[in-house]
């Protein structure tokens, strides 16, 4: 569609919003598609499209083939600045690319995915996840034991175990509507371990960044092995066919939180030489990470991701704003449960002042693979005055008891539904340098698209699609997942992957790791 037309529509939507107010506008959106869809579901005798499986001929990669198709009749939460949110519309996909997005595209003789009753949106983009230990699920029974378990078991994985863990995690990501994953690989023991992770990433069909890291057992006074990184660049990342055009590479290090300047500088400098973006943990155990110092040392720019940096100082915020560096907030915000309540306030402050913020899953032993939950947690934490909105902005209460303590001269404003959705999609894409490829339903971008059922019990009445996604959405509502133009989940079922084998092998690997460790 033309820009003029989209701007006209945006203006029309805005003027309507101004004229008729929030409540009626919600009705307007709902009337377009989602409420009406209850009738559709009833008339077709089902609540999803599971009775009409999308044909999925296989390709030489073992993944379903990319095809041309039309997604019709869903509420479109495009996350595109020009297109905005449409109460009903269509998305045309061809050869892995979004060809067109509009209210009512003219008929084309291609297969159709019926999206009536669903919210159509870009796949989620997460920005920090330790995939290699995804098989530790449900091992952590005591708070704080995750790190202890990790250090105890990390030396006992084989490369095969790594591949199986990544397969498991990526299948779960797919199931949950996450179409881009940042693999923060912080236990690379040797080349075969890196290869096993990358092979599993490619096999998943999802988009990803593989960030090369250090072996967990390495002493903090030693520089991590750096010699294998160029091989991975040469043999994988510069071979587009081998990675199906879906992988990029980054670099993760222990950074100033765990290592002395001489160590982290040697590592960061190598990453710079190899043109690899740097991601580090930046909280919350000690205020040892300084964005100011990283900027002054030349290690902070718009490609840098600082994970869990909610203890940033005012000067750090300035350095991040100046450079465009990112703060990545982890799933369920587990580290905000620490002793410093002002962490929460600072997180809201960072979003308020415009620090680039993205979201992450982090570690499945302690958090679920659920971007709806990450968005929801963030939204509730970031509501000064509580969800009711009756208390004055900046009051010492947040939704569900979260404490927000702004400085006396400061007036914080709530984190909005739109901001939560942006962080979970286009924000994450930009953080990973993929803003031109994914993160929104924009013609010309790759087709990373999910369909979320708005007719399920936990979603009805789905008055406003943004609120439905952030306040009510769940992984169980993810009906269809399209990654790089391939339909990998449809009607709530994963297509083209042997889920049972992946689950069984993950369990076998964990049992073997526990046996080898003597646990
Ligand atoms: Zn982490």
Short summary of the structure?
With 519 residues, this protein is of the alpha/beta class. The chain is 35% helix and 18% strand.
Q: How would you sum up this structure, described in words?
A:
The protein is α/β, with parallel strands linked by helices. It has a domain at 3-124 and 441-500: Urease, subunit C, domain 1 (Roll). It is built from 15 helices and 17 strands. The strands form 2 sheets. Strands 1, 2, 3, 4, 5, 14, 15, 16 and 17 form a 9-stranded mixed β-sheet that branches. The protein has an 8-stranded parallel β-sheet with strand order 6-7-8-9-10-11-12-13. Helix 12 (371-381) packs across helix 14 and helix 13 (417-431) crosses helix 14. It is globular. The relative contact order is 0.16. It binds zinc ion. Zinc ion is lined by residues 128, 130, 184, 281, 307, 362-363.
List keywords for this structure.
519 residues, alpha/beta, Urease, subunit C, domain 1, 9-stranded mixed beta sheet, 8-stranded parallel beta sheet, 35% helix, globular, binds zinc ion
